Amino acid sequence: MGETRKRGRKPKAPASTTETMDFQYTSASNATQTDYVAAQNDVFSAANDSVATAAAAAKNDANNPPPARRGRGRPRKSEAGHMEDTEPHAAASPERRPYQNGAVVLEPPTQPVAKWESVAARVVPAMDAVVKVFCVHTEPNYSLPWQRKRQYSSSSSGFIIGGKRVLTNAHSVEHYTQVKLKKRGSDTKYLATVLAIGTECDIAMLTVSDDEFWEGVSPVEFGDLPALQDAVTVVGYPIGGDTISVTSGVVSRIEILSYVHGSTELLGLQIDAAINSGNSGGPAFNDKGNCVGIAFQSLKHEDAENIGYVIPTPVIMHFIQDYEKNGAYTGFPILGVEWQKMENPDLRLAMGMKSDQKGVRIRRIEPTAPESHLLKPSDVILSFDGVKVANDGTVPFRHGERIGFSYLVSQKYTGDTALVKVLRDSKILEFDIKLATHKRLIPAHTSAIPPSYYIIAGFVFTAVTVPYLRSEYGKDYEFDAPVKLLDKHLHAMAESTDEQLVVISQVLVADINIGYEDIVNTQVLAFNGKPVKNLKSLANMVDNCNDEYLRFDLEYQQVSSLSVPLPLSLSLSLSHTHTVDEMYNFLFS
């Protein structure tokens, strides 16, 4: 007996389980020819496929069928969607009509059309509204905040909506210096203006002042939230070619997802259509040609294939309506509590819950939440806006589906109120809670604001943010950063809206700071016995200090004392940049 061969793909090299955002760097053109060809073969082009299908159908006349021949590779699909073998089928020569949106229309159809082919055909009229986004990024250097990194270019996708606006992903235009758009079939790039960037939901809104850009293009219409197994078609400009491409699949899952760029959790769609680098910001259409989402990230793992994620229409409409209502993006609000599941029956009895009562227990309350004084730890949330919360923190979603109750909160807008029913000491209480955006002690983003810093006697003070940790310790900062910083990042809550975690980032070596060269990323707790609330308060205290010595109380019971001839400090928020030589000349001359 011959050797048994297992079906399936060859094992890959180990890869990290990460969800990656997909926009195409210009440097991707340096990929090997093999990678380029492989990527090209993964791209399905609606126009090319339609022309090829028309040519094949015209060639295979009923009276002169082609000879049976088995080709290499997989059997090709027939129009009915099944795997076609060597036996050809007889068909009358189709009648050609003029090109419409880049595709040849064949009539009459000789066989039923597969579902995914039907979706692609209906999407064709809306494909003209899909644009290619070119962006030049210039990121701040968070480790050396007085300068910026070298600029780089990227390309991604976007689409035109009503009101002469364009939607794309926020990470596609993050730290933008210049944004340009190019329509399908055009050779002109138009300068774009960024109207709003929604970091949490990873959506950005653009516009173009040149009226020529909007000529001959109909805006994309939005559809309802799709159901499981509904067909979707992702359109965009991914790596592997310069023209528009289409990938098709179905909705595999609908749930609360982790948005990598936004460091938050919102409603999302999982699809099995390929989402590659450059697809970011492209629309996902249903079988009616309506947009049901925006492609934004994919799962890269050795055991996973073709797992892509799409921002659904409820999140998109929240972003658009927020901008229209407030003239700017204000964000997605939160309830401001951490909660615990109540699935254990003994825990429910201990909390005074009856057999017909369900809910979740409040563990902690954000001190910065507007109504933090109303709710208390150990309160049991029974319902939110009249919707009962289960013991596992879920609420009814659609038929046969449940979803985390944070979805109800995310449907609200900043400043809205919600009716929250809680159980406290076996009594049911109701509160009108005002909702606000999340104030993190260590912000996940800086909202395109350059990092602030303060320097005195070579000590570089700055506020800790996630971009700063990523700059210092790389993408695996959650494993490599100091434990105390990680503990504050994951668990600490801000006591006030202006509180910051201030650290000594580094010490620029000079005679005045001998012996302090090894202080790196150490938190500053107090200055001359007064607590340090934020970077601005530290700068004010140092500038107004008349004592002989400057004493900085650091974590790990460290103390730094300096005798500094004032004024010898520099406080900047990077409204302008300075070179390292200029810094040294200012500080130590």
Can you walk me through this structure?
The protein is α+β, with helices and mostly antiparallel strands and 589 residues long. The chain has 3 domains: 121-326, Thrombin, subunit H (Beta Barrel); 337-435, Pdz3 Domain (Roll), CATH 2.30.42.10; 453-585, N-terminal domain of MutM-like DNA repair proteins (Alpha-Beta Barrel). It is built from 11 helices and 33 strands. Strands 2, 5, 6, 7, 8, 9, 10 and 11 form an 8-stranded antiparallel beta sheet that branches. Strands 26, 27, 28, 29, 30, 31, 32 and 33 form an 8-stranded antiparallel beta sheet that branches. The longest helix is centred in the N-terminal third of the chain and has 14 residues, at 46-59. Mean pLDDT is 80; it is low at 1-18, 27-111 and 566-589. Residues 15-26 have a biased composition (Polar residues). This is Protease Do-like PDZ domain-containing protein. Residues 1-26, 51-98 are annotated as: Disordered. InterPro entries: DEGP_PDZ (IPR041517), DEGP_PDZ_sf (IPR046449), PDZ (IPR001478), PDZ_sf (IPR036034), Peptidase_S1_PA (IPR009003), Peptidase_S1_PA_chymotrypsin (IPR043504), Peptidase_S1C (IPR001940).
